[in-house]
Amino acid sequence: MLDRRIIHALRVHGRAGFREMAAVLGVSDQTVARRYRTLRERAGVRVVARPDPIRLGYERWIIRLHTAPGAAEPIAAALARRPDTTWVSIMSAGTEIGCNVEVPVVGDRDSLLLQKLPRTPRLVSVSAHCVIHSFAGGAVGPDNLQLPLTPAEVAGLAPPPADDDRPAAVADSDRPLLDALSLDGRLTHAQLATATGWSESAVRRRLDDLIRTGTLYFDVEVDPDRLGFHARVLLWLAVAPSRLASVGAALASHEEIVFAAATTGATNVVATVICSDMEALYRYLTERVGVLDGVERVETAPLLRHVKQVGSVR
After folding, report:
1. What Gene Ontology terms describe what this protein does at the molecular function level (predicted)?
2. Taking a C-beta distance cutoff of 8 angstroms, is the pair 261, 141 a contact?
3. Which residue of 53, 66, 81, 279 is 20 to 30 Å from 211, comparing CA positions?
4. What ranges make up the beta strands (E) of the chain?
């Protein structure tokens, strides 16, 4: 339970100090530091800080690609190298790819969707789904598997609330800082200064500004297999439009859900599910998803491997 509490604490404020977390968690700072190091080594825990696409008003697209046998790996690798993709996964029998693209409204959307992808050799089909509302995961907040802290404990850790009067924004000059934070959101100011070539005081000022304007949010990457969750599946749901909000709210309350959003397209809800095994997934689909009013059809695509996760190539 302490490990889950530490992960939740990092999700609330990824740069919180060990002493600060220890005061909230009721243990020593040495214990927190030791358990954090163990989580990094044994559970693949990685804290990242990323620009908040919702706050920045970015368009978010989930792209589903079907490839010829043997073509998924190079196509997924090419997608992972793009700076606008945040996750890229190989699914099903190794002939399906799912990826998330975040671009400014005036960004490279047309080039990706209309030119580059259709010309990719051995690409069988492409469907692009624009995210129109987020229910769980990502910048929305921790999923229910990561919620062992009480509201009072969360309040004791949370960074200052974003100043809504100040617009969130990133500049080209922020790229070195954002690149470093996408690899490790807990790098010290000295380490960030080395990575960016800035002074420590410049790093501190800009990082504080990005956090206070809500431009950055913290996420935590965890290897589910090392925590006993061996069934990872992407769900594509066709939901009656009048039931989108209620189905989304229901999914967001399930601890099996780590991400859920409403999208455009024939399947208008996408969700990422993790379960202990396939039998648990069967029970989840039949007892919790299939009974939701408004769910008309469900497609499942097992996640075989993440090529890129939380903005970093694996």
Report:
1. sequence-specific DNA binding
2. no
3. 81
4. 46-51, 59-67, 85-91, 96-103, 123-136, 216-221, 231-239, 257-263, 269-275, 295-309, 312-313
DSSP per-residue string spanning 234-291: EEEEEE-GGGHHHHHHHHHT-TTEEEEEEESSSS-EEEEEEESSHHHHHHHIIIIITT
pLDDT digits (tens, 9 = 90+) for 164-177: 677 888 888 999 99
* Percent of the chain at pLDDT exceeding 70: 91
Q: Which of 246, 307, 314, 267 is nearest to 74 (CA)?
A: 307
For each of the domains in the chain, give its residue range(s) and CATH number, in order of start.
Answer: 2-53+147-221 (1.10.10.2890), 58-132 (3.30.70.920), 225-305 (3.30.70.920)
- Tell me the per-residue pLDDT of 110-137, one tens digit each, with 9 for 90 and over: 666 656 666 777 889 989 999 999 999 8
Buried residues in 180-192 as b, exposed as e (16+ CB within 10 A): bbbebbbbebeeb
